């Protein structure tokens, strides 16, 4: 798959996953607003303020975002793995055949790797989403109190579908590219060959200038892209969607990462020193006694 095909294919899949998860994220966000609206109608303004802080974190958002990470991560892990194999013009390595024969398979391993990858980042992400929603609700209630709105007017403003959909779209796109990045990274690490990666920007009127600057840049998979922040400074990113980057380089990003097998100066594939993906102990391979 050439660069243009990779870009077209990725954009198509991004749109598919966005369509699949947008409403789910929207309803998860709405679940944080609904108790506040109910409290407002039933017991008034002060009860609504208390209801804002009833949940430390939105469990429904955790579930949806986790599913999004796993589904997109697994898809792009498969895509990256196929890309590396195609660039190497090789079949499966013996260790991968062994994994499938033992009933474990790379799919199961990748899902667990993705869960592990996001285990710490997921809580902070959802905490941030919950806090932003809480602050938006509080701002509406305070504005309504200052301007003398009725209860119904406050409730209507809180349930503004346009605002919720805008936030749901932002969250879906941002977490989608994070999942794609994680899957690509994990599959690249599981390749039996050394790999290199290329940053592929969306390159339209919405593309960040900093992302245009790294478009087509190709580096070893262990190296990092130097991506400028809009307000100064540099993020050292493993690729688009790297959650370690500043939010200014993450939110609404539609770039992608292409990985291929690396070759030496003579055009030969470079095998990794340790190609065993899972130890015999984890595979439960019988040993001679």
Summary of the model, kept short:
The chain is built from ten helices and five strands.
Throw out a few tags for this protein.
disordered C terminus; 289 residues; 3-stranded antiparallel β-sheet; two-stranded antiparallel sheet; 60% helix; mainly alpha; 10 helices; elongated
Walk me through what this model shows.
With 289 residues, the protein is mainly α. It has one domain (3-281). Helix content is 60%, strand content 8%. The chain is built from ten helices and five strands, in the order H-H-H-H-H-H-H-H-E-H-E-E-E-E-H. The protein has helices at residues 3-43, 45-52, 59-88, 94-101, 105-117, 121-147, 151-158, 161-189, 209-214, 280-283; strands at 195-200, 218-220, 225-228, 234-237, 256-261. Strands 2-1-5 form a three-stranded antiparallel β-sheet. Strand 3 (225-228) and strand 4 (234-237) form a beta hairpin. Helix 1 crosses helix 8 (161-189) and helix 3 (59-88) packs across helix 8. The radius of gyration is 23 Å and the shape is elongated. Residues 98-104 and 276-289 have low confidence and may be disordered.
Relative helix content:
55-70%
Strand content: 5-15%
Using the CA coordinates, give the radius of gyration: 23 Å
Number of domains: 1
Low-confidence stretches: 98-104, 276-289
Q: Average pLDDT value?
A: 88
**Using DSSP, what is the number of strands?**
5
Return the structural class. Answer: mainly alpha
| Main beta-sheet strand count, sense and barrel state | 3 strands, antiparallel
Q: H/E element string? A: HHHHHHHHEHEEEEH
Number of helices: 10
Instruction: For the largest sheet, list the strands in their spatial order.
Output: 2-1-5
Span between termini: 48 Å
Overall geometry: elongated
